[in-house]
């Protein structure tokens, strides 16, 4: 039977254990730092290789740009860009186009005999129509016809225009619905 004798004081034993733990932690940190350093070296070397490859590709591309084929392709691409810009402008004009022809046809269909239109004015899709009606009944028929048209809202005939019976100078205001102003599909 062997007997182990520990002649070191308890405090000294604890200090030795702490030193051993400290050495182990420092050794692990050195290993981690070494691995991180190796990783950074690998990343930097990959960056250098990629930059070399990229510069060689740039040189090849610049030599191709001098070729006639590239000039033809560049010419076609610039033509396509120009045509696309023009098509975009045409589409924008068509999208923003207001089709008054349908509105004028609706107004023409709504005007009965005995009504003379002197002027049509537009202010932000609100139409002001002035003219002369031979009788009050004709003016009322005109207002009724305009009310029946789906594209017109807020048809307004001032009351002083309806007071007279014959040869009435009138003004009718109505709002045109935006969807009726364009027949272009957006």
Report the sheet with the most strands, covering strand number, pairing sense and barrel closure: 4 strands, antiparallel
Major β-sheet strand ordering: 1-2-4-3
Total of helices: 5
CATH-scheme architecture of the domain at 100-181: 2-Layer Sandwich
Q: Tell me the distance between the termini.
A: 102 Å
Q: So, the CATH homologous superfamily of the domain at 100-181? A: General secretion pathway protein M, EpsM
How many beta-strand runs? 4
Helicity level, as a percent range? 55-70%
Give me the strand/helix succession.
HHHEEHEHE
Low-confidence stretches: none
Strand residue percentage = 15-25%
List the helices and strands and how they pair.
Blueprint: H1 10-65, H2 68-96, H3 100-110, E1 115-123, E2 126-135, H4 136-148, E3 152-156, H5 159-163, E4 166-176
Antiparallel strand pairs: 1-2, 2-4, 3-4
Polypeptide structure, described:
Helices cover 61% and strands 19% of the residues. By secondary structure, it is α+β, with helices and mostly antiparallel strands. It has a domain of 82 residues: General secretion pathway protein M, EpsM (Gyrase A, domain 2). A 4-stranded antiparallel beta sheet has the order 1-2-4-3, covered by helices on one side. Strand 1 and strand 2 form a beta hairpin. Helix 3 crosses helix 4. The longest helix is centred in the first third of the chain and has 56 residues. It is elongated and about 140 Å long. It starts with 9 loop residues before the first helix and ends in a 10-residue tail after the last strand. The model has no long low-confidence stretch (mean pLDDT 82).
